[in-house]
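Regression test attached.
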Amino acid sequence: MRIRIHEEFCIGCRLCEIMCIVKHSRSGKILKAFREEHPRPLPRVRVEEEGYTSFALQCRHCEEAPCVENCMTGAMHREEGVVLCDEEKCVGCLMCVMSCPFGVIQRGGEKKAVSKCDLCGGKGTPPCVEYCPNEALTYE
Amino acid sequence: MSERRVRYLLVGFSVASWWAARSIQEEDVEGQVLAVSEDEELYSRPLITYALGRRIPGPAYWGDVVCNPRVTVLWGRKAVALEAEERVVHLDSGERIVFDRALIATGSVPIVPSVEGKELEGVFTFTRGKDLLQVERFLARYPVEEVLILGGGFIGLKTCEAFLDRGFRVTLVELAPCLLPAMLDTAGSKYLERALKQAGVRVITENTVASFVDRGGRLFGARLQGGEFLRADLAILAIGVRPNIEWLLDSGLSLGRGIMVDEHQETSVQGIFAAGDVAETRHYITGERTVVAIWPEAVRQGKVAGKNMAGRKVQYPGSLPLNVVEIGDVPLASCGVVNPPDDTFEVLSRSEGDRYRKFVLLDGRLVGFVLVGDIEKAGLFVHLIRERLSLHSLKDKLLDERFGLIALPAEYRKHLVQGAGVEA
C-alpha cells in the first residue's frame, strides 16, 4: 500500500496537514492539539503551492531509501516496507535531510531528531488521505 | 604460520565494507566473505562525537549489517601488509590470508601536527571508538573546564558541538582565515563563526598552536604562534584526516593521496578494490582525482565495489562532497562546488538575517550550494545536482525559500513521486 498523489484534484486546503498534526498529537483531539499542546507537532505531510497548482507531499518510502543508507545510527530504518525514524536513536545529524530527494524530512523534537511520515503505523487509511475532500491523496 | 584462503576478503569492517558485503551476497549467494577489523566490535565511527555529547549512550550502530554464516569477521586484527600480485594479506597476528578478491576499506587516520607537547596527557585525536574511551576516562579522572580544539574542519566542529552539549568552555583555533574551508564559502563560514560565538565558543582564526604546555606532566595550556597563552585542560587535535595507506606503500598498488581506483572502484591491480575514506576517486562535477571522506560516498562506493567484486560490472558516477553541521540552532549544509574557480560558473546568492542561500551553476545545471538556516530542501538540491537536470527558467526560483518539488517540470515531478510503493 502507498499514498498516491493526484495533483489535479488538490485544492490546497491543507486539511491533510491539520489531520496529520491531530493524528500525531498526544491527545488525538483537534482542539487540544492546536490550543493546548506545546510545541505543536509538525505536519509530516506538506502542501506545496505555486499559482493555481498544489499538491500534498509526504515521504515516498523509497525502495532504496537514501535516508536509510546514509543514517549513521540506524535510527532511520524500514519496518514491513515503511521507512521509520526511531527518535530514541536519532542524534539529529541531519544527513537524512541532505539525502531525501523530495525534501520531506524535517527537523523536529527536542533531541533535534527528525520528523517524517510514518504511514500512521500502516494500519488503515492515514487521516491525510481519509479527510482529503477531493481524493487528491489516495491510499491503494 | 597459519594460512586462510577466502573468496572475498574485506580489510576494515566499517560502512564501506558493510555495504560491499551486502552487494557481494546479492550477486554471489555462495561466496564466503572474510572481514578483518582493528576494532573490537561493530560501531559507527561518526557517532563518537554524539556519544561524547551524551545524545546517545554509545556509538552503537543499529542498522542492518549483513550477518549470516557466510560472513566471518576477525575482530581486533590488523592488516599489516598486502602483496597485491600474490593476493596475500598479512595480519599482525602473523596469519596470512590468501584471497581471490579483496576490498581495502581501511578508512582514514588523523593527521597529527608536529607540535611540541602533543604527547602530553590531555591531548587527544578524536576519530575512533578508543579515542572516545580515552577522553571519557580523562574527563572522569581530572577536573576539566577549558577545552581547546585545534582545527576548524568537520571533525573539529563536531567535537566542538559535543563539548558544548556537555557544558565545557571551548576555544576553537583554525589556521585558515575561514572555518570549514573545504565545505563553505567565505560568507557561509562567517555565519558559522557567528553561530559558534553565539553558542559561547571562542574562535581564533589565522593562528595555530606552537606548543602545548604542561603542569605536572598534564596539559595546562597552549602557546599560540602569536605568543598568546591559552589555558586548556583538554585539547583535541583535529587538523584533518588522511587515507590510511601507510601499510600499503610496498604493496604494489598505485597510490596517490589515497588508493587510486577506477570507475569500478578497482585499484591498479585487478581483483583488488578500495572504497570509503581510503579510496581516491573522481569528483562527480570536476572529474578531478579526490578523496571524499563522507558516510554517503562510503555507502555508494562500497555497494559498487561489492557488485564488481562479485562479477557484475557497475559504474560509480564519482564522489560528490556534501555535509551538514548544526551549531546552536543554526544548521549549515553544503554540496558540490561552492567556491567556483572561474567565471564560467554562475553564482546566485541571497542573505537575509540569519539565512543564507548560495547556488553555483554551470551550463544551466546546478553544481553546488550552501544553505544556512533553512536546509529542509537540501536533499532536493543534491538530487538536482546528481541528476544534472537542466534548470533553464527554473533557476530564477532557486533563491525563493518556498522552492520545492513543485518548481520542477510537472511531468518530471510526477514521475519522481511514483516510486515503487510500499508493501503493507
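Expected vs. actual: identical. Confidence is low (pLDDT under 50) at residues 420-424 of chain B.
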